[in-house]
Amino acid sequence: MRFAVPVFPGSNCDQDCAKAVREVLERPADLVWYTEDSLDNYDAIILPGGFSYGDYLRTGALARFSPVMEAVAEAAEKGKLVLGICNGFQVLLEAGLLPGAMRVNDHLQFRCSIQTLQVENNSLPFTACYKQGEIIRLPIAHGEGNYYCDDQTLQELEDRGQIAFRYHGENPNGSVAGIAGIVNRRGNVLGLMPHPERAIHDWMGSRDGARLFRSMLQYWEGMYGAA
Amino acid sequence: MQPEQKTDSVMQRASEKEPTPEMIRDQELFREVGLSLEEFKMITHYLGRLPNWTELGIYSVMWSEHCSYKNSKPLLKRFPVDGPRVVQGPGEGAGALDIGDGQAVVFKIESHNHPSAVEPFQGAATGVGGIIRDVFSMGARPVALLNSLRFGQLHHPRVRYLFEQAVAGIAHYGNVIGIPTVGGEVEFDASYDGNPLVNAMCVGVLPQEELQKGVARGKGNPVIYVGASTGRDGIHGATFASEELGEDAEEKRPSVQVGDPFMEKLLLEACMELVKKNILIGIQDMGAAGLTSSSTEMAAKGESGMELDLDQVPQRETGMTPYEIMLSESQERMLLVVEDGREGEVQQVLDKWGLQSAVVGRVTADGRYRIRHRGNIVADIPVNTLVDDAPVQYRSGVEPAYYRENADVQPEKSLSQVDPVDALKRVLASPNVASKEWVYRQYDHMVRTSTAVRPGSDAAVVVLDGLDKALAMSTDGNSRYVYLDPREGGAVAVAEAARNVVCSGAQPLGITDCLNFGSPEKLEVFWQLEQAVDGMSEACRRLETPVVGGNVSLYNESKGTIHPSPIVGMVGLVENRRHITTQSFKRDGDRLFLLGETKAELGGSELQSVIEGKVAGRPPRVDLEVEAKLHQGILAAIRKGWVSSAHDCSNGGVAVTLAESTFGEGLGAEVDVTSPWDPIVFLFSESQSRAVLSIPPQHGDAFRQLLEEMGVPCAEIGRVTGDRLTVRVNGQQVIDTPVQDLRSIWEGAIPCEMNRSSTN
């Protein structure tokens, strides 16, 4: 299983994501410059966190026009796994690959802390290694993680099991229904504000993020064999 | 060209808007840009004629305290700057120390006090941006940021605004560029009401063979300008930083630069690529005094000259004069010198990152600094007169009256009747001691996934990729101590920074310092500066932590003089990740040891401040021999794997050390001690060279034996247990309080203060 990590000008978690894949899964992960227009050689894509294009205009609003985003949409269409973390989630929203939009945190400050989350659906390609309802700890670091969608969309997300993670206890940004991460209808595109790549060793304060990457590998091996 | 002709064209350049050389002389206009008559005469002597307005501007910024250290240079020579690990001492963008495996740690701290006083968000943000450029201009990959902040009292709305905005500015820059802000410190005191301090530190790592220098060498080599275009922002920032903040400080707002961390991220990555390609002869950032200081310093260090054509400089505004272009402090700009003919290779990298660049000049061999604008020579100056021959002020200080008066103050007597529980709660609620989570949760402290000890412990620890080693880092300085006794306070700043690093499991390697003081023209302020430098130097010598770089910020005066505030940024090396230690108690049943000797030292203490509202007496003394032994003892025990937690005693004494150690895991402690002192003195004395360690029961005896053998006073004072903090002193129960109660006071103090003006 080969991972691509697209790099936009201003991405700053690209190395961290590639490192996590290598350390947790021992699988190759390549940094792919935003001007690339094909991701055919990859089985999964991780859109990293950071401040693509300085978050000018709106978070993710400029990155979505990068050539690589057409390739990401194509990969999603083919059923490949696409994971968007933090700014990557914001880019997926702007690109229309996930429903809803992102607003500034309700308290108007940037927030970095290790947050408690609940696994809302463990039957997804990204969550199979967690228990249903399990409480996990993942770091967050964002100024705009206040997820919003209209009532009808929220109902659909709830009904179809598209809410992957919810904040447990304190909601650190004011997001609708405490949403921390959602998938598309097909379940192969996940966007989440917390950073699983920052929680893969005990010394990081939590290693609950490692299982998200393991789930992806397990899913892929289930589909295509342990090649 | 004949010399006379050159001079003529220089003289002709004076535009209609700008004063003529004669007007500068006759109307003493040099004073407007911060130069004295004596300095003006020196300039005239060096040039052999009157300077024009552009040349005057260039001299004024290069000879400002900020760039030339003219007031502090003689003192800075007292710092120890050598050591077996020193790869690069003071004089470049940042210092560098050998950390083994062919790697070096590169670090520096710098102030951005004056800009932050008038425009706190941008002032603080660009302070961070500047220090990051200093580190990556050395070729190092920045891996961590720290800071040291001083604000007035939070009940003033203006102070809350400055605090909130400065923190937001620091957060913004570090978060966007993606370098974790892993540590720092904040103190609050009335002396900073009108003049906050914002010091930012950056730490980077590089393979030693990639170390870069800011030099211009090789006649004919191109000088390349990279990054943001030049605007009118920040003109005379360096001069502004070298004056007192007057009533008109608000009018200086245009002297504050505006930062773009996105641009700097691109610049950082592009420069890292250029370093790896090994095509740079010299690289320097355009910081204070912008194009002027970077180009003249590079030429001076390369013992060459330089010719610049200002028409080639990318400009974001039209009609800029040479004076404005030369003195602009627009951010996110770098100056490179490469071998002639390799411009294309540089261009390729810059194109990838979408950065604009221009060849703005050539290195020359004649030692002249020559500026062209629209075909005219607008400045022609001997390079060395700007850098090496900048004037030096030899000042002397006078011991202030308050220092003598304080000799008789005995705070131990007046404070001994205070109720210990009430005192502990009030000290924990003091913003100086209270949790700084409100601050650091706004900083991304985990990006780069290398942060092993996050903010809130004694020192931050960052692991090194591919190595078992880690770096510990801390910023420290107790301004109250320095005010009461600058020599002792200066030594304590170094000792405490080292102690913090040691408690995290690291060997202290070296320091960078930022000397924040009032006007050196005041005899008493100069005395503070001189004494503090001596105290710091002594401590650095004994603890074998050389000073590899730093910064001086004088004229920190608005309504009065700030407390003298030397800040120490210490870096230490953790040899093995298993040695990484934090301050929180880990296991019920661990035995508690207090290392070091407690004396009756409440002068300048947190207790004195919260109970009596004053700073008086003599501060705690530090015996550097004792301090060094303590460090060796703690490190030896940590390396044997015997230490569950280690936390040094500082602000608020043993009481705060114990309380803070319980907060992390919510594990309480039972402490029972015999002491020659009253409970209040035992609990709140701020005696130096002390730490509280928790040790698993099976290692306790061996631990005590080891420490005693090493000559470190070591008393077993209790154990980790339950969820209450209980303390008995000489058989009398003086504290018995749930950890949760203490923690909520400590956690809530700053958010409560800030709630008055913010929503969270």
UniProtKB/TrEMBL annotation, chain A:
Keyword line: ATP-binding, Cytoplasm, Glutamine amidotransferase, Hydrolase, Ligase, Nucleotide-binding, Purine biosynthesis
Function comment: Part of the phosphoribosylformylglycinamidine synthase complex involved in the purines biosynthetic pathway. Catalyzes the ATP-dependent conversion of formylglycinamide ribonucleotide (FGAR) and glutamine to yield formylglycinamidine ribonucleotide (FGAM) and glutamate. The FGAM synthase complex is composed of three subunits. PurQ produces an ammonia molecule by converting glutamine to glutamate. PurL transfers the ammonia molecule to FGAR to form FGAM in an ATP-dependent manner.
UniProt pathway annotation: Purine metabolism; IMP biosynthesis via de novo pathway; 5-amino-1-(5-phospho-D-ribosyl)imidazole from N(2)-formyl-N(1)-(5-phospho-D-ribosyl)glycinamide: step 1/2
Gene Ontology molecular functions: ATP binding; glutaminase activity; phosphoribosylformylglycinamidine synthase activity
EC number(s) on file: 6.3.5.3, 3.5.1.2
InterPro entries linked to this entry: Class_I_gatase-like, PRibForGlyAmidine_synth_PurQ
PROSITE patterns in UniProt: GATASE_TYPE_1
Location of this chain's protein in the cell: Cytoplasm
NCBIfam families: FGAM_synth_I, PRK03619.1
Keyword ATP-binding included in the entry's annotation: yes
A family per Pfam: GATase_5
GO cellular component entries: cytoplasm
Annotated catalysed reactions: N(2)-formyl-N(1)-(5-phospho-beta-D-ribosyl)glycinamide + L-glutamine + ATP + H2O = 2-formamido-N(1)-(5-O-phospho-beta-D-ribosyl)acetamidine + L-glutamate + ADP + phosphate + H(+); L-glutamine + H2O = L-glutamate + NH4(+)
Subunit structure, interactors included: Part of the FGAM synthase complex composed of 1 PurL, 1 PurQ and 2 PurS subunits.
Species of the source: Melghirimyces thermohalophilus
Protein name, per record: Phosphoribosylformylglycinamidine synthase subunit PurQ
Active site: C86, H195, E197
GO biological process: 'de novo' IMP biosynthetic process
Gene that this polypeptide is encoded by: purQ
UniProt superkingdom: Bacteria
From TrEMBL, chain B:
Residues noted as binding substrate in the record, renumbered to the chain: S111, H112, N113, H114, R133, Q257, E329, S330, Q331, S553
Pathway where it operates: Purine metabolism; IMP biosynthesis via de novo pathway; 5-amino-1-(5-phospho-D-ribosyl)imidazole from N(2)-formyl-N(1)-(5-phospho-D-ribosyl)glycinamide: step 1/2
Keywords: ATP-binding, Cytoplasm, Ligase, Magnesium, Metal-binding, Nucleotide-binding, Purine biosynthesis
Binding site for Mg(2+) 1: E110, N551
The PurM-like C-terminal domain, residue ranges: 219-372, 587-729
CC per GO annotation: cytoplasm
Reactions catalysed: N(2)-formyl-N(1)-(5-phospho-beta-D-ribosyl)glycinamide + L-glutamine + ATP + H2O = 2-formamido-N(1)-(5-O-phospho-beta-D-ribosyl)acetamidine + L-glutamate + ADP + phosphate + H(+)
Binding-site residues, Mg(2+) 2: D134, D285
Gene from which this protein is expressed: purL
GO biological process per UniProt: 'de novo' IMP biosynthetic process
UniProt-annotated stretches for the region Disordered: 1-23
PANTHER family referenced in this protein's UniProt entry, alphabetically: PHOSPHORIBOSYLFORMYLGLYCINAMIDINE SYNTHASE SUBUNIT PURL
Residues of the active site: H66, H112
Name listed for the protein in its UniProt record: Phosphoribosylformylglycinamidine synthase subunit PurL
Residue ranges occupied by any PurM-like N-terminal domain in the UniProt entry: 91-205, 456-574
Keyword Magnesium recorded: yes
Single annotated GO MF: phosphoribosylformylglycinamidine synthase activity
Pfam families documented for this protein: AIRS (PF00586), AIRS_C (PF02769), FGAR-AT_linker (PF18072)
Protein family membership: Belongs to the FGAMS family.
